[in-house]
Amino acid sequence: MNIFLTGMRYLLLFVTASFSITAQAALDLLIFPEARTLRIKDNTSNTTDTSASIDFFGTAHYGQFRFLAEVFISEDNPETERLQIGYEFTPSSSAWLGRMHNLLGYWNTQYNHGTYLQTSISRPQIAEFEHNGGLFPSHTTGLLFETSQEITQEGSIDFSFVAGSSPELRADNEAQLNGLVLHTRELFNPGKGSHKLNLAARMIYSPQTMRNNQLGVFASQIEIAVTDPNVNSIHLTVAGLLAYWEFQSLNIYSSLFYIRDRVESNNTKNTGSFSSGYMQLDYLIEENWTLFGRLEDTFNETADPYLALMQNFSPTTQVAGIRWDVTHNQALKLEASEKELAGETITTLILNWSAVFP
Q1: Domain positions in the chain
Q2: What pLDDT is attached to residue 26?
Q3: 192 near 95, Cβ under 8 Å?
Q4: pLDDT value of position 5
């Protein structure tokens, strides 16, 4: 009931705001509700849980100005995940200011915080959000520049660059995760915590005939402040490749990350490097039925000083499932996964309903 009442309050807020600007600006609002039940089994326990969430995603434009907002409400707390104001210099170039998704890999900029748009229920470990134990900043608050250039009649190059704040690494506030967790700058309490610089760039090639298809590269420099007596700061250099390609009944998407890290304490600097990636395949077996599977793996992770701090990251995960699009805007999904975490094998089974309205 609490999540329903909170969701209704935010819906009324969005509707009220839309009435104030629709006479002058074009507004789109999408609502992504979700309910799931899951069962988790590890070496010593077997637990079940049921939860619900709702994601509000709105965009508006007035002349050359753009606005984007996303609010995600779960049983924990409502979170303003994105809040951006932008200006369109040309139809192919724009700049944004605010809290936004970071330019790392494919998954992070392709999907919102709901699960309806993605085929699977879960996200890859390397693309996990910060508060769920993610390795990298999924969000940043700062300035984003985007531009697109037609290179031939057959395709275009999209370039994006972001400069913003990095997260702080500290203990989980709600004690739901082990060890240290990345915490982004709070939008309405920006002075909380210590936040350094995050720089990221991405370049993507898209063929003209299949605009959904993408081949790209990305890179990032991240300085992370740490609230821990044994560690002062962390420096990450990230580079990688991404791909998404559609065939008749098969979609393939993948990202590969290479990371060099430096962990600084009072008297020492420990350096390391590792690589991690995933590949997911979606196969349409009938009009409304899709099988999906994902493999995730990490290499050279054993002695890495940064991964030693990130106790919630699983270096190896396998995922398989099926999606049934019940109607044009509702889906049921069943997903099974197995991952290795801190020497334990964890298996998870999730049943999920998700939708988009209107």
Answers
A1: 2-90+103-136+206-355
A2: 82
A3: no
A4: 44
Fold held by 2-90+103-136+206-355: Porin (2.40.160)
* Environment class of 45 (CB within 10 Å of its CB; exposed 0-12, middle 13-18, buried 19+): exposed
Using CA atoms, how far apart are residues 326 and 189, in angstroms rounded to an integer? Answer: 41
The β-bridge partners of 60 are 27, 67
Contact 208, 229 (CB under 8 A): no
Q: Rounded mean pLDDT of 176-204?
A: 90
Instruction: Please state the length of the chain.
Output: 358
**Matching residue, tokens 């298809």:** 213
Token reading at 9: 């309050």
Between CA 284 and CA 177 the distance in angstroms is: 36
Q: 289 is written with which tokens?
A: 């039925």
Please report how many Cα atoms fall inside a 13 Å half-sphere around the Cα of residue 204, on the Cβ side.
25
Residues in contact with 229: Cβ distance below 8 Å, sequence separation at least 6, in sequence order: none
Rounded CA gap, 96 and 105, in Å? Answer: 19
**CA dist 240 → 74, 252, 350 (Å):** 32, 17, 30
Q: Is the pLDDT confidence value at 108 over 80?
A: yes
- The least confident of 21-30, 138-147, 233-242, 288-297 is 21-30
Amino acid at 52: A
pTM (global) more than 0.85: yes
Three-class DSSP category at 1: coil
Can you name the residues that pair with 46 across neighbouring β-strands? 41
